[in-house]
Every structure is written in structure tokens, then in C-alpha cells.
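Troubleshooting log. The previous structure file for this entry was overwritten by mistake, so regenerating from the original sequence record. Sequence copied from the archived sheet and checked twice against the printout by T.R.
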Amino acid sequence: MPPVIGHIVWVRHLVQRIEPPMVYFHKHPDVLRLAEAGAETVALYEKLKSAFISFEQRLVGQWKSQHASIASGMQATLLVQHPDSHRLVVNFDNNVVAMLSEARVMKREGVALPNSLAAALDAANKYKAFGDSTKEVIERFYQIQATVPRLIQPLLASTYERIMLAFRPGLISLTWAATNIDLYLERITTALDELAGFVGQVNLILTEQVEGSLTRLELARLFLLDGMHSLPLVDKIVLHKPRPTDFQTKPLIDSVFQGLRVLLSVINEANPSSSSTMRHLVAAFYSCFGLTF
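Regenerated output below.
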């Protein structure tokens, strides 16, 4: 039990301990009248009870003033960007969760809560659910991004910009008190579904049509690459100029570039601004073999 609430419960317990004798005296007034210290006993009771009630009221007042920050915390934006990595981070203060837990106990103990705090308490489960869902969509975005090959990453800049545009309201205007967080998360989920499908298509083309052909070339040993075994498969062509050993390698090489053309088409359809960059990459592949694109 939180300390402040523990103090309040303790004070209320003391009040309950001193009340039964007074109830008895009220039912039997002759006992007090005949008792030598009856008046002093009643006065002491009233003094103690007043002190206990005053102490409880002071605790409750302090607690309410300290927890008024919950209302302002609900006006914080859903997301922030990490100052160093610039990655998206859920802007959800765990202290708010602790405060709401205390408020729940306070309400159970019969303490009247401010309207703003009561409203936040009623929506506590919703806030937690939205916090968890927001964290999940952020993690999913970075997981999808991590599956994109290093060479392809720069070509998807405009795609990532569209995803960030979907996240943007949570960075600048959408707060935890908003009523449309669920719609915001739905839009992001839809955008991530499209991104996942697109990245899956890109990876499939790269794996089956490009890297598959490169693997066949490597296994056939139709050309030699210096240090080829220590590099990722796609980098072998990009970073090391091959030494052709047979003109029959051209059909296999062409199959690699055909895969690149398909990849270019798919990426260009989703990212028109990346067309020139992708064509430059394909041209670089061709130049390794003394060919033109």
C-alpha cells in the first residue's frame, strides 16, 4: 500500500478505536455523570478525534495537490523522438500508472477525488491499452525496417517518410486525452501492413532472382572474385571487380540484371524519387563487367 494511503488508513483505524467508548457513554449518560473524570474524557476524545481528522485532511490535500500532475500528464503527446538516436519512443510516464493505482485505492477508501483525477482513473485501462498498442506499432516498424537489406535501405527513403507521416500526429498534436487514438493506431497499422508487404516483395525478388543467380555463378566458379568468401553475396559483385573466365557467363550475369530490373520496377512504383538512384546502382553492376546499362 502506498505510504500516504497507509497513513490515512492508520488514522482512520485510530478514530475507530476511540469511538466505541463514546458510543457507550452516549447510550449510558449516567456513567459519565457519575465518573469523576467524565468531562475530561469527553474533551480528550473530541481533541484526539479533531486532530486525527485534521491530519487525514492534510494528507489527502497534499496527495491531491501532488497528483494534480496526472491531468497535465494526459496532455502530453503520445510520442517523442530520442534525442540521440531519433527513434520514436512512447511518451508514457510510468509514474502516471502508479498515481492512478493510488487513486484507485483512495477511491476504495472513500476519498473524494478531483473531477480530472476521477476521469483519468475511469480511463486508466484505456490509457494502458493504448500505451501498449503504441509501443507495439513502433517496434513493428523498426522490425520491418531491419529486414531491408543494407543496399536497398537508401532507396526506400520516401516509403519511410510516408510511415513517419502516419506517426507524425502522435509527435505534435495527439495527446493521451484524445478520443481518436484508436483511429490513429489503425491508420499506422494499415501503413505498416503495406510496408511489410512491399518489403516482403522486395526481399523475395532480391533473394530468388538476384542472389539466387549470384549463388549459381559462385557455385559454377565461372568467374573469380578476390576475397569473395568473406563478403555478403550481393556485395561480392558491387565491391569487387570480377575477372571473367568465360564468355558463357554473360547469360547468368544477364539473369542477375533482369532481377535488378524487376527490383527497380517494384521500388520505382512505390518510390518514384528513388528511380535515378536505383538506375545508378544497376549501372554500377554492369560497369563491373565492362557492360553498359
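The chain is about 70% helix and 5% strand. Archived copy saved in two places this time.
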